[in-house]
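#struct-help
A.M.: can someone run this one for me? Single chain, 612 residues.
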Amino acid sequence: MAGLDMSISGLASGFDWKSVVDQLTAVERTPQNAVRIEQSTLAKRRDALGQIASQLNDLQTKATALGESSLYTRRSVSTSDSTIASVSAATGAVTGSYSINVTTLATPASWLGASTGIISPLHSQDVNTYTTANPPVAVNSATGPVLSEAGWGSSLTAGTVTIGRRDASGLVTNTTVTVATTDTLRDLLVKLDTAIGSTRNVSGSTAGATYSTSNDQVTLAPVAGESLILGAPSDTSNLLSCLKLFTPASGASAVSDSKLGSLKLASALSSQPLVTPLDYGTTATTGSFSINGVSIDYSSSSTLSSVLNSINDSAAGVQASFDSGMNRIVLKNKEPGNRGVVLSQSGSSNFLTAFGLTSQKGGTLSSGTDLVYSINGGATAKARSNTITDADSGLTGLTITASKVGTTTIASANDTSAVRSAVDALISSVNRVQSLISSLTVSNRDAAGKITAGVLAYDQTVFQLGSNLRSLLAPQLSGGPSTTIRALTDLGYSTSGYTNELSATNSAALTSALSGQLTEVQKFFSTTTTGLSARITTFVKPMVDEISGTLPQRQKGLTEQSTRLDEQLAAMERRVQSNRERLLAGFRAMEAAQAKSNSQIQFLNQKLGIST
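D.P.: on it. Structure tokens below:
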């Protein structure tokens, strides 16, 4: 018996008393259901009041937007030819139509680095494959530089190039020249001589390949009566590009398009082929110069590209670039207009001198131009850029940006679309408030005649709120800010006799008021204290203020009431649990007694020999 679990229902008695206790407990909890229903009702009312407060806050926001004076001073602008000029307008800009005649666009000034006397030629002496004797005598000794170490603008690649010769009959003979980076300049000229068909050993022949150090150019002279064709799609070396050679006119010589010695964007400043090397002194490895008062730092290991990027990323206001055709650095003002470029260097820095950017070394200013225009056929005016501000033109609030020479008409007018949108938003907000109040306070009868009351059906404060809001939007009999617009009905909106919601009954009224009475519309909405915006705020704020507002206070009261019901439910549940434990204890005692009785009967039956 000691091993029996008396908490198991009916183990000894055969009676399911635990199920009975559960049913009695459920019956005792029945009063709690009514409390929970009441709590649910309170929660619905609290949520409903919150919805109304939210809609009223939205109404106030929409009313505030209509009260902003800037809403009525917005402008819409257009141009008859946007390719000539575009226009933007600030709030309160002047209205009207203006003819803009652009005669000269503003262009930026540029400081052009010198293109001569700055970069060392490819080689220090003329290079010919034959002497000037008559007849010419071949020169066998190699003359540098080795091609891989020459001062090309780009790295020379080994491979092949094609040299074509067209004779008088049109027959073309192609010769493939193999280029090795270990060749010297003379080695290369010998190969080109052969490809051209030069016969320098014949008296009077002028055909052949030569290099002039004074011009820093290679010349390929064809054999008399022939024309040269340089390059083919199958070429694998960039030799012709490095030599800046292109196919010449029929019978003419091919001459390097520009000097061959070139700056190298990817190389360090210390390795540039400059006539005047950068001088850093014996120990200094850095220097600086300034452009328009902005200091630019560099070091001997800086690449030319990195220095140009530093200039472009700085506040100097110029765009630095390398003109490979002219072999020079160009500093172009980022802003158009006839402005200068101010350069300076001091101390041991000679970057500007070495790269030909000083006036003494041949650097020159390519002047920009100012914008030249006139308005409505008036006097010629100028602007430093292609943007004409109102300070330039006298057209308050208008900014005109010219794009090309020509005449266009700028039009500026009141932008009433924003006001219309704000009025529509206010009407929509009013209707949402009224619709919500109606849905929460109305009682409905279904087909069976059953009446279902709204969550706030008997709430007179909320019911009266809808009526008060309708009255607020009614015409002002006196004291209104506008003498011509006294209510929303004057703008084409009115209510019916069956609902507090507004509807557009005369769409032309708002259009007419915005086009002809914008000032009166502004007075009606935005006048301090008496304007509709201020009156709506005065109406709404006492209802929704988070600290003292009617609706938040009522929500707070409902929350407190629900909290008290929580406490009541907790007390009721404690009583239920106490009674349940008392019943369970009694039944467990009964079960133990029954188990003891069963054990005694079994013992007696065994002693008396009675079988069960």
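A.M.: thanks! The radius of gyration is 49 Å.
D.P.: also worth noting: DSSP finds 13 helices and 26 strands in the chain.
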